From TrEMBL:
Gene for this chain: ald
Reaction(s) the record says it catalyses: L-alanine + NAD(+) + H2O = pyruvate + NH4(+) + NADH + H(+)
UniProt superkingdom: Bacteria
Enzyme Commission number, as recorded: 1.4.1.1
Entry-linked InterPro entries: Ala_DH, Ala_DH/PNT_CS2, AlaDH/PNT_CS1, AlaDH/PNT_N, AlaDH/PNT_NAD(H)-bd, NAD(P)-bd_dom_sf
Gene3D superfamilies cross-referenced by the UniProt entry: NAD(P)-binding Rossmann-like Domain
Name of this protein: Alanine dehydrogenase
Family: Belongs to the AlaDH/PNT family.
One Pfam family hit: AlaDh_PNT_C
Protein's organism: Algoriphagus confluentis
Domain called Alanine dehydrogenase/pyridine nucleotide transhydrogenase N-terminal: residue spans: 4-137
Occurrences of domain Alanine dehydrogenase/pyridine nucleotide transhydrogenase NAD(H)-binding (ranges): 149-297
Keywords: NAD, Oxidoreductase
Length: 371
């Protein structure tokens, strides 16, 4: 198959969909890989590394779309790219269709085949191509939180791990899923006194088994949250209710009960945030202060660490990309239900029900194309 890897042009997007190592795997299997000039630069991979792996460098985004049967990307195509997409071309990338109607309409009109990272799903209902970014954001939440707890940055001036003779900081994590667990490992590793709150007893049993002694678990409810926030130095918001807006577990009135210089990192901000006073911020301007409480609410945290994020993402996407390249999208999806669930748009028809429902658009069963 002919695979094209364009450079991401969305503002501040430095990730790339394929590393030189990934290119080598695909070339080894007899596929042709075309990478747009400087596509990997933001993640630390130069053109020469792709060429050494057997890929060909193309000068422009137009040439990359023109030649490819499968386009591998990170972010959804933006308007400038719509006209470059060809009928029957396979696009393998994040789309998040339900949040943007013009993109959905453009992809329907293009008659391309859109396989979305975010809906590839394993039999246990986990989303293998979303997990890596949650892992990055969870770990980063504590790194950022520790930083903003420093006095010159508005925080309480407390060291997360304390020192001999001085108690460590208290870290409260709301939600013990992927983000919360990774945040807990980092905070615990730095010596903080960590509490994870969740509503799932099964999840907390698991966490209690695997976490070190400085991590405790506690049922998440309003009473417990009101008690815990009085003592917390760093609070990480990591709650997710699939398909819904995050619940506001910390409301505006609770800020006055917190210590001056407490830091809130609301990772769930992309789903509306689990802290009422959180509104999306950017890496250029990541924090603001309300009632002496520092809020960090960057909506695309992994964007700040493109090297790690690219490797984490491509570790997860490459095995699927290989199946798609080896077999073509139809056979790959027939053989692997995880990939079939990733199909969102095929040749002008929406085949993922939630996307069609979001815009009241017609919907066709994916089986029609896989029979
Ligand atoms: N800001 C970013 O850059 C970024 C990056 C990656 C993920 N995220 C977001 O982080 C959030 C968490 O993602 P995840 O992958 O960890 O999800 P997840 O599904 O693995 O975990 C969510 C957890 O929240 C728990 N939960 C649900 N209701 C709760 C409540 N009332 N109180 C406490 N816990 C509750 C669930 O039981 C589950 O354990 C999502 O909104 C995701 O979109 C943001």
């Amino acid at each position: 198959m002919i695979i094209g890897v364009p450079k991401e042009i969305k503002n501040n997007e430095n990730r790339v969909a394929l590393t030189p190592a990934g290119a080598k795997e695909l070339v080894k299997r007899g596929h042709s890989v075309y990478v747009q000039h400087t596509a990997g630069e933001g993640s630390g991979f130069v053109d020469a590394e792709y060429e050494a792996a057997g890929a060909t460098i193309l000068p422009t985004i137009e040439a990359t779309y023109e030649i490819a049967e499968m386009i591998m990307k990170v972010k959804e195509p933006i308007e400038q790219e719509y006209k470059l997409i060809k009928e029957n071309q396979l696009l393998f990338t994040y789309f998040h269709f339900a949040s943007y109607e013009p993109l959905t309409k453009a992809m329907v009109e293009s008659k391309a085949v859109c396989l979305a990272y975010e809906t590839v799903e394993k039999p246990d209902r986990s989303l293998p191509l979303l997990v890596p970014m949650s892992e990055v954001a969870g770990r980063m939440a504590v790194q950022k939180g520790a930083n903003y707890l420093e006095k010159p940055l508005g925080g309480r001036g407390i060291l997360l791990g304390g020192v001999p003779g001085v108690l460590p900081a208290k870290v409260l994590i709301l939600g013990g899923g992927i983000v919360g667990t990774q945040a807990a490992w980092m905070a615990a590793g730095l010596g903080a006194d960590v509490t994870i709150m969740d509503v799932s007893l099964a999840r907390m049993r698991y966490l209690a088994d695997v976490m070190p002694a400085n991590v405790k678990t506690m049922m998440s409810n309003e009473y417990n949250i009101r008690e815990m926030i009085k003592h917390a130095d760093l609070i990480v918001g990591a709650v997710l209710i699939p398909g819904a807006k995050a619940p506001h577990l910390i409301t505006r009135d609770m800020l006055k009960d917190m210590k001056k210089g407490t830091v809130l990192v609301d990772v769930a901000v992309d789903q509306g945030g689990c802290i009422e006073t959180c509104k999306p911020t950017t890496h250029e301007n990541p924090t603001y202060v309300i009632d002496d409480v520092v809020h960090y609410c960057v909506a695309n945290m992994p964007g700040a660490v493109p090297y790690t994020s690219t490797l984490a993402l491509t570790n997860a996407t490459l095995p699927y990309a290989i199946q798609l390249a080896d077999k073509g999208w139809k056979k790959a999806a027939q053989d692997n239900q995880e990939l079939a669930l990733g199909l969102n748009v095929i040749n002008g028809e929406i085949v993922y029900k939630a996307v069609a429902d979001a815009f009241d658009m017609p919907y066709a069963l994916v089986e029609k194309y896989l029979a």
